[in-house]
Specification:
Low-confidence stretches: none
Number of helices: 12
Order of helices and strands: HHHHHHEHEHEEEHEEEEHHH
Oligomer: single chain
Mean pLDDT: 78
Length: 641
C-alpha cells in the first residue's frame, strides 16, 4: 500500500509536470499563432497599400505617356513648318546675306579673341617660364635630398644586414619596382624575426609550462606525503584498535565458562584482525558445545520420555489394579482363542487353597503351576469341544490318579465352578516337597513335571489362586507400582533438572557468544586504512603522471631551445627578446628611410618631368602667343561686306 501510494504521488507529480509542460507548449504555440497572425495582417496591409500604389502609378504612367506624345506631335508640326520656310527663295537669299554679315562679325570677334588669346598666351608663356625655373630649382633640391636620403638608407641597410637588398632596390628601374623589392626584403627579414620570435615564444612558453609542471609535481608530491602521513596514522589507529580487540578477546576468553576457547586463545588472538576467522573458531567451539548439549538433551529427553512412558504404564497398571479385584496371569503369545466364548474356566480361578497350607507352599505350588502352564490352562466342563484358535487346555479325564499325595491335598475345587471333573484333575497331578515321579507332578519347592518335560520356578508369594492371595498380590503389586512410580518421579525430576541445567548452559553459551568483542572499531579503522591506501595509490599515480608531464615538458623545452638556436643561427639573429625587439625595429626604420628616399627620388623624378613639361609648355605658350598674334593681324586685314 505504501509503495502504491508512492506510485500514486509520483503519477500525480508526473501529471502536474506534464500539465505544466502542455501549458507552456500551448502558450508557445499560441504566441507563434498570434505572431503569425500579426505578420499576416501586416503583409495583407502592405499588399493592399502596394496594390493602391500600383494603381496610382499605372494611372500616372498613362498621364505621362499622353503628355509625352503631345510635344512629339508639336515638334513634328514645327519641323514641317521650318522645312517649308527654308525651301522658299526669300529665305535662301536672306540667308546668304545674313551669313556674310555673320562671317564678318565672326571674323571681327575672332580677331579680337585672337588678340586677347595672344596676350593671354604671352602671359602664360611668361608664367610657364617662371614655373619652369622654379620647378628646376625644386628638382635640384629634391635630387640633393634624395642623395642624402639614399646615403642614410644605405647605412640603415648595412645596420640591418640588408645591404645587398638595398643595392637591388637602388638598381630598380622605377620606384614601384624598388618599393616591391624593399617590401619583399623587409618582409623577409620580418618573417625571419617572426620565426625567431615564434621559436623564442615557444621556448618561453615551454619554460613556463615547465615551471607549472614543476609546481604541479611539487603539489602532487606534497599531497602524496600528506596521504602517506594519513596512511601511517590510519595504520597506527588500526594497530591500536587491533591491540584493543586482542585484549578484549583475551578477557572474553578468560570469562567464558561454556565456550572451550582457552586452548585456542593464541589462535583467536592471532586471527583477531580477521572477523570471519574469529567467528569460525568461535562458531566451531560453540557448535561443538551445542552438539554436546544437544546430544545430552536428546539423551535426557529420550530418558525422560521413556521414564514418563514407563510411569504412565505403571500408573495405568496401578489404576487398573485399583479398579479391578481379580488378577490374571499374563497370557502367552501362543494363545489366539477367544476364551469369552468358551465354557469352563482357567485352573487358577476354579481352585482355592485348603486351610492350613502355608504361604511358602502356596508360592512354590503356584510357581510350578505357572511355569508348567497348568495355572492358566483352560478346563472344559466335559468332553471335547471344537475351539476356534489356539490355547492350552487341561482335562481331568485324561489323567491317572496319583499313587500318593496330589494337588487335591493342597487345593480344593470351588463348589460353584462349572467343571465337575476339576477334582479328578487335581487328583491326577502328584504333589510332594519336590515333584514326584509321576506323569504330572508339582513340587512345593516350585518343581514340576509333565510327561517328559520338567522344570522349576520360584516366586515370593502366591498371587492368583485364592481370594486372599489375590488381595495380597494386588496390594503388593500396587505398593510395588507406587514405589516404582515414586522412583520414576524422582528420576524424571532429576532428568528435568539436568535438562534445565543444560538449557542454562545453552543460554550461557549464547550469552557468551553475544558477548564476543565486536570488530566494528577494527573494521572502521581497516576501512580508513584502505581509503588511505587508495588515496596514497591515487596520489602516487598523480605524482607519476606529473613526473611524466614534467619530463615531456622538459623535452619540449630542450626541443624549443634547439629550434630557437637553429633558427637564430640560420638567420643571424639574437635569441634574447630585448635584442630581438631592437632587431625587429631596425627593418622598420630601414623601410621608413628607404621609403623616404624613394619618395624623394620619385619626387625628384616628378619634378624633373614637371620642369621639362613646364619648359615645353612655356615654349608652346610662346608659339601659341605668336600664332594668335599673327592670326589677329590676318583677321584685321579682312574686308568688311
Amino acid at each position: 500500500m505504501a509503495r502504491l501510494a508512492q506510485e500514486v504521488e509520483a503519477a500525480r507529480g508526473l501529471a502536474d509536470r506534464n500539465r505544466t509542460y502542455a501549458r507552456r507548449v500551448l502558450r508557445a504555440a499560441a504566441a507563434s499563432l498570434i505572431s503569425a497572425t500579426s505578420t499576416m495582417d501586416g503583409i495583407t496591409r502592405k499588399a493592399r497599400e502596394s496594390r493602391e500604389a500600383y494603381e496610382k502609378a499605372k494611372q500616372r504612367l498613362a498621364e505621362l505617356t499622353t503628355e509625352q506624345e503631345r510635344p512629339a506631335a508639336e515638334d513634328d508640326e514645327l519641323a514641317h513648318r521650318i522645312d517649308g520656310l527654308q525651301e522658299s527663295d526669300l529665305f535662301r537669299e536672306g540667308q546668304q546675306l545674313d551669313r556674310l554679315r555673320r562671317d564678318a562679325d565672326t571674323a571681327a570677334q575672332a580677331a579680337a579673341a585672337a588678340e586677347r588669346k595672344a596676350a593671354e598666351r604671352a602671359r602664360e608663356a611668361d608664367d610657364d617660364a617662371a614655373k619652369a625655373s622654379a620647378v628646376q630649382a625644386a628638382y635640384e633640391q629634391a635630387e640633393q635630398a634624395a642623395d642624402r636620403a639614399r646615403g642614410e638608407a644605405g647605412q640603415a641597410a648595412e645596420r640591418v644586414g640588408l645591404a645587398a637588398s638595398f643595392e637591388e632596390v637602388a638598381a630598380a628601374r622605377d620606384v614601384p619596382t624598388a618599393r616591391k623589392l624593399l617590401q619583399a626584403a623587409v618582409d623577409s627579414r620580418t618573417r625571419q624575426v617572426d620565426q625567431v620570435r615564434k621559436a623564442l615564444y615557444e621556448h618561453v612558453g615551454a619554460v613556463a609550462e615547465r615551471r607549472k609542471a614543476e609546481t604541479r609535481l611539487e603539489d602532487c608530491r606534497e599531497q602524496e606525503a600528506r596521504a602517506e602521513a594519513r596512511l601511517v596514522e590510519a595504520q597506527t589507529r588500526r594497530e591500536e584498535a587491533l591491540a584493543r580487540l586482542q585484549e578484549a578477546i583475551e578477557r572474553w576468553c578468560s570469562e567464558c565458562r561454556e565456550l572451550p576457547l582457552a586452548a585456542r586463545l593464541d589462535e583467536l588472538v592471532d586471527a583477531a584482525e580477521d572477523e570471519n576467522a574469529v567467528m569460525r573458531v568461535v562458531n566451531d567451539a560453540a557448535a561443538a558445545v551445542a552438539d554436546e548439549l544437544t546430544r545430552a538433551e536428546t539423551t535426557l529427553d529420550a530418558r525422560r520420555q521413556a521414564l514418563a512412558e514407563e510411569r504412565a504404564r505403571l500408573d495405568a497398571e496401578r489404576a487398573e489394579l485399583a479398579r479391578r479385584t481379580v488378577l490374571a496371569p499374563e497370557p502367552p503369545r501362543t494363545r489366539t482363542a477367544d476364551r469369552a466364548r468358551l465354557p469352563g474356566g482357567p485352573l487358577w480361578r476354579l481352585v482355592d487353597w485348603r486351610p492350613g497350607v502355608d504361604e511358602s507352599t502356596q508360592a512354590g505350588v503356584e510357581a510350578a503351576l505357572e511355569a508348567s502352564g497348568l495355572l492358566d490352562a483352560w478346563v472344559l466342563p466335559s468332553g471335547e469341544l471344537a475351539v476356534d484358535g489356539h490355547d492350552t487346555f487341561a482335562d481331568g479325564a485324561l489323567t491317572t490318579p496319583a499313587p500318593g499325595s496330589s494337588l487335591a491335598d493342597v487345593l480344593t475345587v470351588d463348589p460353584d465352578a462349572p467343571v465337575p471333573r476339576g477334582a479328578a484333575l487335581l487328583r491326577g497331578i502328584a504333589f510332594g516337597v519336590t515333584a514326584p515321579d509321576h506323569p504330572a507332578a508339582i513340587g512345593a519347592d516350585g518343581t514340576w513335571r509333565l510327561g517328559a518335560a520338567r522344570g522349576s520356578w520360584a516366586k515370593p508369594a502366591a498371587g492368583f489362586i485364592g481370594a486372599a492371595a489375590q488381595e495380597r498380590a494386588r496390594a503388593r503389586r500396587i505398593a510395588e507400582l507406587t514405589a516404582r512410580i515414586e522412583d520414576l518421579d524422582e528420576r524424571i525430576a532429576g532428568v528435568r533438572a539436568e535438562l534445565d541445567a543444560l538449557a542454562g548452559r545453552r543460554e550461557a553459551l549464547n550469552a557468551e557468544q553475544r558477548r564476543r568483542p565486536g570488530h566494528d572499531e577494527l573494521r572502521a579503522a581497516t576501512g580508513q586504512v584502505a581509503r588511505a591506501e587508495a588515496e596514497v595509490a591515487a596520489r602516487a599515480d598523480a605524482v607519476s603522471r606529473a613526473q611524466q608531464e614534467h619530463a615531456a615538458v622538459e623535452r619540449r623545452v630542450a626541443t624549443a631551445l634547439r629550434q630557437l638556436s637553429l633558427v637564430a643561427g640560420e638567420h643571424g639573429l639574437p635569441t634574447e627578446e630585448a635584442a630581438l625587439d631592437a632587431v625587429d625595429a631596425a627593418p622598420g626604420a630601414y623601410r621608413n628611410k628607404c621609403h623616404a628616399w624613394l619618395d624623394l627620388r620619385q619626387q625628384a623624378a616628378t619634378l624633373a618631368g614637371q620642369a621639362q613639361a613646364a619648359a615645353e609648355r612655356a615654349a608652346r605658350s610662346r608659339r601659341d602667343a605668336d600664332a594668335a598674334a599673327q592670326e589677329a593681324a590676318d583677321l584685321r586685314r579682312l574686308p568688311r561686306p
